[in-house]
Amino acid sequence: MPELSWSAAFLGTSRLPQKNRLAFSRWLLTRFDHDLARLNTAMETQFASTSAVTPPLVGMGGSLLVSSPLVEAYFTFLREALPPAERIPLNAGGYYRSAFLPRVLGANIEVFNKKYGTTFRSYSEIPFTSNVPVTGADEWFLFTSKILRPNFVELTDDGLANCNRSGLKREEFIRLRSRPADLRVRTVDVAFVEWAEARGTPVFEIPQKEIDARDFLSRRGQIKRTFLTQNYAVVIDELLVHGGAIKNTAILVLLAVAGTLLVNPLAAYALSRYRPRLTYQVLLFCLVTVALPAEVTMIPIFLQLKTLGLLNTFGALVLPTLANGFSIFLLKGFFDSLPRELYEAAELDGAGEWTMFWQITMNLSRPILAVLALGAFVGAYGMFMYALILCPDPRMWTIMVYLFQLMQSVDTPVLYAALILSALPTTLVFVFCQNIILRGIVVPSEK
User: Fold this and answer.
1) Which residue of 85, 177, 226, 342 lies most exposed, with the fewest beta carbons within 10 A?
2) What class, spelled out in words, does domain 243-446 have in CATH?
3) Which residues sit opposite 8 in a β-bridge?
4) Where in the chain is the domain with CATH 1.10.3720.10?
């Protein structure tokens, strides 16, 4: 049978594993060193992201399947990379009985029985043959000429002569001018029935359910593992294999935490140590910034960063979040609670301002600094809207942006898997840093 007669199993739906869709995506991307631009050029495709790289639609219904680089690559994948047990035959008879007839005649089989004088108990008992049958001729011809992909339809001798006289292309003739006697179906399931009957073993169709049951029982453990891990594999593959999401997020988090622990303590230290005349006005201004939603400042920040030429850089992601009004207010109150005698003693010992800042203030403020660092981590890690607007270049996308793009094209189970995996880093940080967090909350109130 021609290659078109087969498809890869487990290409994925909301209920089935997607491991072979994922396997095809990896296989094709590997051939082009994960360069999406090169892949699109070679395959004549327009995949918007690596997560959108999927096999072509090769099924029973539709128009004539024309050879293309992507289709040829898919059949190469079937031949070279896919185990024979992972291939499935495209079953025209099954499609005809389970989908087409109920849609055309309704769910009640009695409509068919009344029309042809038969006593079938369900559509699953109606045979599907290569040539036009006596029973169900109208439905068979409608399905073969209008629904079935022309690749699976052959012309009889009379059909070929009629096609030549019509002056139409083969597909156009099948769809528009053909008669029942002009057509013959050539699919795996029909060929199997004829092959078995010729050897004295009459069968109705490929025993696909029995084959699947035997395969399931022989690979029960493997299939369980596939169902348990398939959704997580899709998400992990998106983050690890496609793009630089993890690297970008790690750099962003490190810069955000470092900047937060430097800029805010310096500002709070100046207000606490020198107590300028407008201290309370400055603190009030800091608190007012907390009252403004981030969406209010998003457009001005974007325009300013665009003017500075910082779009699609880590500077665009980090600079707007370095100074935080609430953090400065919180640190200033904490620094005020530190004993002034420590600074006086340090000055007598000849310590400079920078030394007192690092050795005294920062050393004694570790609990509250840990809380601020945690907040900076959570903010940077969960940044989505800012990251998407300020860095539209896919090479600068963070984990949250990549997951958002992934969620546009996956089923709900994959979406839930993405949510669980994305929550793991923050959950682990809270679990392992809970003592530091509690100290940061309790210590200031004790001073």
Assistant:
1) 85
2) mainly alpha
3) 87
4) 243-446
CB-CB contact of 390 with 305 (8 Å): yes
User: CA–CA distance from 313 to each of 112, 246, 252, 297, 317 (Å)?
Assistant: 66, 16, 10, 19, 7
At 394, the amino acid letter reads P
Nearest to 24 by CA among 85, 81, 67, 66: 81
Q: 28-59 as b/e, with b when 16 or more CB fall inside 10 Å?
A: bbebbeeebeebeeebebebebbbbbbbbebe
**Helix residue ranges per DSSP H, 32-136:** 36-43, 69-80, 92-95, 101-105, 110-116
- Find the mean pLDDT for residues 92-101: 92
CA distance 34 to 178: 46
C-alpha distances out from residue 50 to 297, 330, 418, Å: 32, 44, 16
Alpha-helical (H) ranges within 96-207 are 101-105, 110-116, 137-142, 157-166, 170-172, 188-198
pLDDT digits (tens, 9 = 90+) for 218-255: 988 888 888 888 888 878 877 876 668 888 999 999 99
Q: Rounded distance, CA 247 to CA 399, Å?
A: 9
State whether residue 55 is helix, strand or coil.
coil
Q: How many CB atoms lie within 10 A of CB 84?
A: 7
- Please report which confidence band the pLDDT of residue 413 belongs to, taking 50, 70 and 90 as the band edges: confident
Q: In whole numbers, what is the pLDDT of the chain averaged over residues?
A: 86
Give the span between the Cα atoms of 352 and 121, in whole angstroms: 95
Q: Do 188 and 1 form a contact (C-beta atoms < 8 A)?
A: yes
Q: How many CA atoms lie within 13 A of 252 on its CB side?
A: 30
Residues in a beta bridge with 88: 7
Closest CA to 142 of 189, 113, 104: 104
DSSP annotation of 439 reads H
> Are residues 432 and 414 in contact, defined by beta-carbon separation less than 8 angstroms?
no
Query: What values do phi and psi take at 185, rounded to 5?
Result: -85, 135
CA distance 116 to 140: 13
Q: Where are the beta strands (DSSP E) in 291-424?
A: none
Report how far residue 215's alpha carbon sits from residue 226's, in angstroms, rounded to the nearest whole number.
14
Provide the angle, in degrees to the nearest 10, between the axes of the packed helices 412-432 and 399-407. 160
